[in-house]
Here is the input.
Amino acid sequence: MGRLQITLQGFDQNRIWCAIVALAVEITAWMQMLALNGHQARRWEPKRLRLRLFTLPATIARTGRQVRLHLATKAPWGHLVNEGVRQLRALAVPG
Here is the structure.
């Protein structure tokens, strides 16, 4: 069975890249507004977010019908990630 290979060049490739970057910026901004509300991290620049939060060692475990995030025990900013996840869960609609 052959593979379908699509090659994007020039404008199309740049347009897709720009859309991905725009989506990442939007997700980061919403994360800061909703999950990091009430903490100084809400105003951190992307470089600081990347160095402190986005590089935390973690694993995702699926058990039964639950998905769990296991952070490294000595992660220096792990408490902030846990608090952010708690705030997002509090915003979730039950059901």
